[in-house]
Amino acid sequence: MSDTILGRRTLLGMMAATATYPSVAFAFSEAEASALINNAVREITTVINSGKSESQMYREFERILVSYADMPNIARSVLGPPARTASSSQMSAFTRAFQTYIADKYGARFREFIGGEITVNSTQKINSIYEVRCTANLRGEAPFAITFIVHERSEKFIDLQIEGISLLKSERAEIGAMLDKAGGNVDQLTASLS
């Protein structure tokens, strides 16, 4: 058998294996999960200490959210069962409104982090997620734990837990109450978030 045929067969076999087992060929690792959160924290800290106006900071926080958080899946999870019946355009509009709402809501709290530091301590894989455990050290306060939950497939974070309290679950309850107030109407909820 010629080297050319063997080379082609080997190449085709490798391509087929990569297509069949993409997670083996391109597995996301603990180191990458840690690096993702380190980069997100560094960008957030840079914005906090930038001296920009609040409105400028909020838009920067939103950009960071879109870069490092799986906002479409977070928005779907927060919306709950109505996400299954919402159209793709309704979900897109809700996701955009929700990420702006979150950036503004938590951006207002980030002032507390001026001069503070968030340190990544460890990362542990649990099934298809990585728990990236951090410590927040703020001026005049006792250190507290923050854990980012990074999903292996999206390679972005899908939840944030502060002292064990899930922001995803908290937001799900709050958005659920807002949806009830909007009579179950997703479009009305989206408008109220805007």
Order of H and E elements = HHHHHHHEEEEEHH
Name the beta content range: 15-25%
CATH architecture: Roll
Please mark out the parts with pLDDT under 50 across 5 or more consecutive residues, or reply none.
Answer: 1-25
Number of domains: 1
What is the mean pLDDT? 86
Helix fraction bin: 55-70%
What is the assembly state of the chains in this entry? Answer: single chain
Strand arrangement, largest sheet?
1-2-3-4-5
CATH topology: Nuclear Transport Factor 2, Chain: A
Rounded to the nearest angstrom, the radius of gyration is: 21 Å
What can you see in these coordinates?
The structure is a single chain. The chain is α+β, with helices and mostly antiparallel strands and 194 residues long. The chain has a single domain, classed as Nuclear Transport Factor 2, Chain: A, CATH 3.10.450. It is built from nine helices and five strands, in the order αααααααβββββαα. It has a five-stranded antiparallel β-sheet. A hairpin with a 2-residue loop joins strand 1 and strand 2. Helix 3 packs antiparallel against helix 4 and helix 5 packs across helix 8.
What's the quick description here?
The protein is α+β, with helices and mostly antiparallel strands. It has helices spanning 3-20, 22-25, 30-48, 54-68, 71-79, 82-85, 88-107, 167-181, 186-193, and strands at 117-126, 129-137, 144-151, 156-162, 165-166. It has a single domain (28-193), classed as Tgt2/MlaC (Nuclear Transport Factor 2, Chain: A), CATH 3.10.450.710.
